[in-house]
Amino acid sequence: MPEINHRVGIRGSLHDVYTALTTDAGLSTWWTTDTKGAGPVGSIIEFRFNGGGPDFEVVELQPDRLVRWRHTGSMPEEWAGTGISFELTESNGQVFVRFRHSSWQEASDFLAHCSSKWGAFLLSLKDAIETGTGRPFPHDIHIDHSE
Q1: Which residues contact 31 (CB under 8 A, 6 or more apart)?
Q2: Spatial distance between the Cα atoms of 131 and 114, rounded to a whole number of angstroms
Q3: Whole-angstrom distance, CA of residue 63 vs CA of residue 45
Q4: Per-residue pLDDT, 1
Q5: Residue among 40, 43, 67 at smallest CA distance from 55
Q6: Which CATH number is associated with domain 4-131?
Q7: Where along the chain do its domains lie?
């Protein structure tokens, strides 16, 4: 099955990156400012973009090492059955985040669009950790996906 796969190095601590991936306050600094529900395994995180957006169940947490979510909402439809993981490693003074959005049903134009957007949001995470200012929605880089 197709997947989105990115890797980004961040100058910061494992703990700071992990916190940015596992708390409402952290997630809202880099993905969308309208985030709620982050918590332990079993929690449902609601990410909203102009009122609508995806819900994810937290399925695995390994402090300072791994975060995994499973899409549980109805939108976007193409994300049904997909999962997201953030694997954290430390090397040469950086935390490397290996991001995967897996189990897509097909390689489509929407998957390509989402890959670009995930790349932009991972750079937003990098900026949030390194400079204190990310670019979460609605302040993100706009990438139109219509034809």
Answers
A1: 47, 121, 124, 125, 136, 137
A2: 25
A3: 18
A4: 84
A5: 43
A6: 3.30.530.20
A7: 4-131
Beta bridge partners of 86: 67, 99
Please give the chain's pLDDT, 147 residues, in tens.
899 999 999 999 999 999 999 999 999 999 999 999 999 999 999 999 998 899 999 999 999 999 999 999 778 889 999 999 999 999 999 999 999 999 999 999 999 999 999 999 999 999 999 999 999 999 999 888 765
Cβ contacts of 100 within 8 Å, gap of 6 or more: 3, 4, 5, 83, 84, 85, 87
Q: Pick the closest to residue 30 from 139, 140, 138, 134 (CA basis).
A: 134
The bridge status of strand 83-91 relative to strand 94-102 is antiparallel
